[in-house]
Amino acid sequence: MRHDEFEQHERAAGDIIHAIGRASDDVRVPPDFRAQVMAKAEPLTSPRPAHLHWRSMALTWMSARRLRVAMALVFVLALGGAIPQYATWFKAFTAGVPSTTLHTALEQERLWEKNFTCATQLDQNSKDYAAIAGDNVHVVVWACPSGDVLVTTESPQEAASPRSVWVPLALSPSGASPWLPLVRQALAAAQRSPAGWRVARITQVLCQKWLSNKRILRRVRLTDGSCRDEVINTRTGRVVQSRPAPCNPQC
Amino acid sequence: MDWNAQQGCDDDVRRTMASGAFHQALETLVQGYQQAVVGFCVNMVGDSHHGEDIAQDVFLAVYKAMPRFRQQASVRTWLFAIARRQCLKAMRDRRRRHRLEHERQKTIAATAHRNIPETPEDDPERQLQLVKQGLTHLGKHERALLLMRYDTGLLLTDVAHILGISEASVRRRLARALRHLREVMNDAA
After folding, report:
1. According to CATH, what is the number of the domain B3-188?
2. Which residue of B has its CA nearest to A18?
3. Are A24 and B39 a contacting pair at CB < 8 A?
4. For B135-183, what is each residue's pLDDT tens digit?
5. For the whole model, what pTM was predicted?
6. Which of the four pLDDT bands, split at 50, 70 and 90, describes residue A113?
7. How far apart are CA A141 and CA A150, in angstroms?
8. Domain extents for chain A?
């Protein structure tokens, strides 16, 4: 509002303004008011030394309305920008995997769901089956019609917990499969194992079914003719449980 | 307090604060401003006892804040910024506000029914009473604004500094508050 406009308003309200100016005239201050204030101030600790006033300066600085609005805006933007990260952490927590491997784990879970039926049909007599029975590592490869390939690795270090990893048909933009490092890791571990290690490898999947929490139970036949039940965590590919089982397709 | 006396008081307070004699500075401040601060607080809350209590709290808050006084504003501006904050804080106490509102309404009702003798329309005393009644019907922020500007005599720049807004905004808000007060007084009449 311009100054002259405001002066007009004030002139028009002159009687009111004059009355407001006298509003405190009939207020009586108690005669002992000053004594009461000083008495209350007496026991108070001395005001904070000046060299600590920077803390109060910060509070004063923050008390200005515009600064509060600006700070609130920055706070909201920071929180909002971090929401995707919070979502990742939450998903990783519920999936039971580190947040850095969440994407990989969810992709593996998706591929197990996509190729579930094909995985049930694993058979060493099929042309889609290949195996490497090395001294220090066993690798079983099973190709599905979708183009995705299931790679199961087993080594002395990981005999109690073999790993089955899906290698998807779609490659990363660089042209390299993102899952090869997992297979290489298993092979590298196998190279450090004692020589002459032998273990029966999978020749056939007899049956397979979903369990709770994204796990799969499958019954497999091995090269030595025995069978076992395996529970696989589809997010990590690890066999989390394994026990002998009868060789029938009744999971 | 007239202008010269006020300036003298402010200078004394600054000098004693600068020397670290905060207790003495407080005494000078209370002596110089007790009428203005108590009047402001009483008119804000509409109750003399409560207003006196708040006025005491104002001076105590000023005492605690003395080391932080940056000398950027006048002592008067700084004092009434704290007074305004203390009054608004006290008025946020809902239970007390309801009780005061109830008492205020009773006072207003009692006043309305009192046998007021006929007085000329330009009677300043009657005008004062009408304005005081009208102020109680305004919002607390409008009330504070009008009292700071016209009762305590703060300049527009001082009010703008206290509220953290521009002078143009202060003018706009004052014009609106005056208009609102006029409407309330007309309704009451």
Report:
1. 1.10.1740.10
2. B150
3. yes
4. 989 999 999 999 999 999 899 999 999 999 999 999 999 999 999 999 9
5. 0.52
6. very high
7. 6
8. 51-95, 109-244
- B56 neighbors A80 (Cβ within 8 angstroms): no
A24, A33 contact by CB (below 8 A): no
User: What are the beta bridge partners of residue A129?
Assistant: A142
Q: Which two three-digit tokens encode residue B181?
A: 């007060």
Q: In 3D, which of A113, A110, A87 has the Cα closest to residue A99?
A: A87
Would you state the pLDDT for residue A172? 47
Convert the pLDDT of each residue in B47-76 to its tens digit. Answer: 899 999 999 999 999 999 888 887 777 899
At how many degrees (to 10) do helices B22-45 and A33-41 cross? 120
On the CB side of B69, CA atoms within 13 Å amount to 30
Neighbours of A109 (CB within 10 A): 19
Q: Which residues from B are below 8 Å from A27, CB to CB?
A: 35, 38-39, 42-43, 48, 51
**Separation between Cα atoms, residue A15 and residue B122, nearest integer Å:** 9
The residue of chain A nearest to residue B175, with distances taken between CA atoms, is A9
Task: Please state the ipTM of this predicted complex.
Answer: 0.80
DSSP 8-state assignment for residue A30 = P
Q: Which residues of B touch A70 (CB under 8 A)?
A: none
Contact A153, A191 (CB under 8 A): no
- Dihedrals phi, psi of A240, to nearest 5 degrees: -95, -20
Whole-angstrom Cα Rg for chain B? 18
- DSSP secondary-structure letter at B67? G
Concatenating the DSSP letter of every residue in B147-162 gives IIIIIS---HHHHHHH
Bridge pairing between strands A163-167 and A202-210: unpaired
Distances (CA, A) of B33 to B55, B91, B157: 10, 22, 20
